[in-house]
Write a structure and sequence with these properties.
The chain is 26% helix and 22% strand. The chain is of the alpha+beta class. A 7-stranded antiparallel sheet has the order 2-12-7-14-5-4-3. A 5-stranded mixed sheet has the order 1-11-8-13-6, with no helix packed on it. Strands 9-10 form a two-stranded antiparallel sheet. Bound molecules: 2-oxoglutaric acid. 2-oxoglutaric acid binds next to strand 7, strand 13 and strand 14.
Length: 322
C-alpha cells in the first residue's frame, strides 16, 4: 500500500494522555477516568505497559514457533493479512486464534490485563472474542491498508468490541507502528474495497475519502499496547526496519446484536479467498465440532444471544446460510 507524503503526528507522552497508572509491568493495569474519556472520544488509546519483559519473551517464543510450523494452515487460520494466498513469499502472515494452538496465551498477565482494560472500557459483561498474531518480516510485502475492523465483520450485526494490539518488540515508525485517524470511531462505516481489486486478497481498504492528514502514529515499547474501536480508521506502513515486527492482538466484546435494517458489505460478498475455502472444507470434514468444542471450552457460548450469533456464523461458514 502506498504511503502518501504526509506530515503525520506521532503520539508522544502528551498525546498519550493515556499512560496506565501501572508503570512497572507485570502488575494489574487500571485505567484512569482521563484515559477512558480519551478512548471514547478519539477511538484509540496507547498504554506503555500491559505486561512484563519476561512475558513478552514467552509469548513471542510461543508465536514464533507457531509461525515456523504454519499452525492452523489446514483449517484456514494461517493466511496472509493483506494479499491472496498462494504467492511464493507471504507478505504478512497471520494466525487467527493462536490460543487454539497454545492455551498458555490466555493464562498470562498480558491476557488478564487486556481483559481488565476491556471491561473498564466496555463494561463487566465483556468477554473474549478472538485473538490473532501478525508477523511482518523486514522489508517484505505491504503495509496494512487503512480500514475499520467492522468492515471485516458480519453486516447483519452490530458489534460492540475493541482490539488490543501488543507489540512483542519495540515498534517504531520505521518498523510500521499502528496509525489512527482520531475521532473516526464516531463516524459511519465507510465503503471498503478489496486491495488491488482482487477478491482473492484478504485485506480491504477504505475506498472513500477520509481525513488522512489527521493520522496519528503510535510507536510503542514491547509489551505496551494500543487499543482501538471497531470503527476507528487505522492501518500501518510496511516494516522498513531490519527486524521482524511481531504483534499479538486480543479482541473483546459484548454479544453482537442482530440489526433490524439490512446492510450489504459488497467487499465481503465478493470475497473468494483460499483461506475461507480451506476453512469450509475443514468444517465440513468435522472441524465444525472442533470449533464448537473450542468455543465451549473458552466459555464463548455463555449467553443465548452469543450462542445464536455463533450458530448463524457457523451455518454461513459451511455454506448453509448466506
Ligand atoms: O498489525 C497491523 O499492521 C494491523 C493490525 C490491525 O489492523 C488490527 O489489529 O486491527
Amino acid at each position: 500500500m502506498q504511503t502518501p507524503n504526509l506530515s503525520l503526528s506521532v503520539a508522544g507522552e502528551s498525546a498519550l494522555v493515556a499512560r496506565a497508572k501501572q508503570e512497572s509491568a507485570g502488575k494489574t493495569v487500571e485505567l484512569t477516568g482521563e484515559q477512558i474519556k480519551f478512548y471514547e472520544e478519539q477511538g484509540y488509546l496507547c498504554l506503555n505497559a500491559l505486561t512484563s519483559a519476561e512475558e513478552v519473551a514467552e509469548i513471542k517464543g510461543l508465536l514464533e514457533e507457531m509461525f515456523a510450523k504454519k499452525a492452523g494452515e489446514k483449517e484456514g487460520a494461517f493466511l496472509d493479512l493483506v494479499a491472496a494466498d498462494g504467492k511464493a513469499q507471504m507478505s504478512s502472515p497471520q494466525i487467527f486464534n493462536p490460543n487454539n494452538y497454545s492455551s498458555r496465551l490466555h493464562k498470562t498477565q498480558c491476557f488478564q490485563n487486556a481483559y481488565r482494560v476491556a471491561k473498564q472500557l466496555l463494561g463487566e459483561e465483556v468477554r473474549f472474542f478472538f485473538d490473532l498474531s501478525i508477523l511482518k518480516q523486514p522489508k517484505i510485502g505491504a503495509g496494512t491498508p487503512w480500514h475499520q475492523d467492522e468492515a471485516y465483520r458480519d453486516a447483519n450485526f452490530e458489534y460492540r468490541e475493541l482490539s488490543i494490539w501488543v507489540p512483542l518488540q519495540d515498534v517504531t515508525v520505521e518498523s510500521g507502528c499502528l496509525r489512527y485517524i482520531p475521532g473516526s470511531n464516531k463516524g459511519a462505516l465507510k465503503e471498503h474495497r478489496s486491495v488491488n481489486g482482487d477478491p482473492k486478497a484478504h485485506a480491504v481498504y477504505v475506498s472513500e475519502p477520509f481525513e488522512e492528514e489527521k493520522a496519528v502514529l503510535c510507536p510503542m515499547p514491547a509489551g505496551g499496547c494500543v487499543i482501538h474501536a471497531p470503527r476507528t480508521i487505522h492501518g500501518s506502513t510496511r516494516n522498513e526496519s531490519a527486524t521482524p515486527r511481531l504483534a499479538y492482538i486480543m479482541a473483546f466484546g459484548l454479544p453482537p446484536k442482530p440489526l433490524k435494517e439490512k446492510r450489504v458489505f459488497s467487499w465481503a460478498a465478493e470475497k473468494q479467498t483460499a483461506a475461507a475455502a480451506r476453512n469450509r472444507e475443514w468444517m465440513r470434514r468435522g472441524g465444525a465440532f472442533v470449533m464448537l468444542w473450542r468455543k465451549l471450552r473458552r466459555g464463548e457460548l455463555w449467553s443465548w444471544e452469543l450462542a445464536t450469533y455463533n450458530a448463524k456464523r457457523l451455518l454461513q461458514k459451511v455454506g448453509v446460510r448466506r
